[in-house]
Design brief:
By secondary structure, the protein is an alpha/beta fold. The protein contains eleven helices and eleven strands. The strands form two sheets. Strands 6-7-8-9-11-10 form a six-stranded mixed β-sheet. Strands 2-1-3-4-5 form a five-stranded parallel β-sheet, with helices on one face.
Length: 319
């Protein structure tokens, strides 16, 4: 694994760079990609982001100014906040074997790059990107804004238990550049569409509890999305909902991506290791936030994830 200094020097040697983000992109991967692109351009490099077909309208304003034009052929490829080849979007799979530098913070990181840098203790990949970019030159407001997006979204606006003193220190440094951090916080944490509110109400009305009501299962079948005519922007970060329920320390959110294909997201406290549970079903992530995909009917997919949770929680109660 590279050090921060080594990663910075490697990036300084790159040009004609294409930056990859992960499937169903969140604020961390989008913010890291945009910030890295801005930092490389500040050095006089040519850099773009590979368009991501799952980009939501909330993240799009930070991504689109850096999107690669059709026909761009890179000399170097960099991935950010992308833990596994299985998380490459369809149009990124062509580059799966030729990533020159992979930058990540997930314990489940597969180290698929020719060179790799990993910081598992970082609450957000944006914290690691901040350290790398600070060695390449001044962290300007143009770089700082998407980095703030990265750090704030992966810490739940600094409310999740992965937040560290360094998360706050990075955020403070970014805020001192004069960015409009209030707009980021309003858009991502204090604004919900009516469709989103309808989705949440339906999820809460059908949720199920297990393990002496410490585990909550919330479901988003395709029929629910269709009923409210909701899109990806309306469904962004629905996995945060279950963790807000009093007494719940393991929230399981099951979202149907295609008929019989469920994207399962776990948000947990210290009692349940989300990474270990999801790894049993071919997924990964962090100790308190992880995911996996299960192809099975809803009842079977639910049974499998609950069995995995029970394996990682010694005091899991079946009754």
């Amino acid at each position: 694994m590279l050090t921060v200094s080594q990663a910075a020097e490697l990036l300084r040697s790159f040009d004609e760079v294409l930056i990859l983000t992960h499937l169903r992109p969140d604020g961390d991967t989008v913010g890291c990609a945009a910030a890295l692109c801005a930092g490389l351009r500040a050095l006089g490099k040519t850099a773009f982001l590979l368009p991501n077909p799952d980009l939501t309208s909330t993240c799009a304003p930070y991504f689109q100014p850096y999107a690669a034009p059709e026909g761009f052929i890179p000399e170097k490829v960099v991935s950010v906040d992308l833990a596994a080849v299985g998380l490459f979007p369809e149009n990124a799979k062509f580059y799966a074997g030729r990533v020159d530098l992979a930058i990540d913070h997930h314990p489940s990181f597969e180290a698929f790059g020719q060179a790799n840098i990993l910081r598992t203790e970082a609450a957000a990949c944006g914290e690691l990107l901040y350290d790398i970019l600070a060695q390449l030159g001044p962290v300007t407001a143009e770089i700082a804004l998407p980095l703030y997006l990265a750090v704030s979204t992966d810490t739940g606006c600094f409310a999740y238990n992965n937040t560290t003193p360094y998360s706050h220190a990075v955020a403070a440094a970014l805020m001192r550049t004069g960015i409009d951090y209030k707009a980021v916080n309003k858009a991502f944490f204090r604004t919900k569409t009516r469709k989103r509110l309808s989705l949440e109400a339906a999820m809460l009305s059908t949720m199920e509890f297990y393990d002496r009501e410490r585990v909550a299962v919330l479901s988003v079948p395709l029929s629910l999305m269709e009923r409210f005519r909701a899109d990806e922007s309306d469904a962004e970060d629905l996995s945060a909902l279950g963790g807000q329920i009093e007494g719940v320390d393991c929230a399981v959110t099951m979202r149907e991506l295609r008929p019989g294909v469920w994207k399962i997201s776990l948000r947990t406290g210290n009692r349940v290791n989300a990474t270990k549970a999801c790894a049993m079903l071919g997924g990964g992530g962090h100790a308190a936030a992880a995911g996996c995909t299960v192809e099975a009917p809803w009842s079977e997919a639910k049974r499998r994830i609950l069995a995995a949770v029970a394996e990682t929680a010694e005091d899991f109660c079946e009754s």
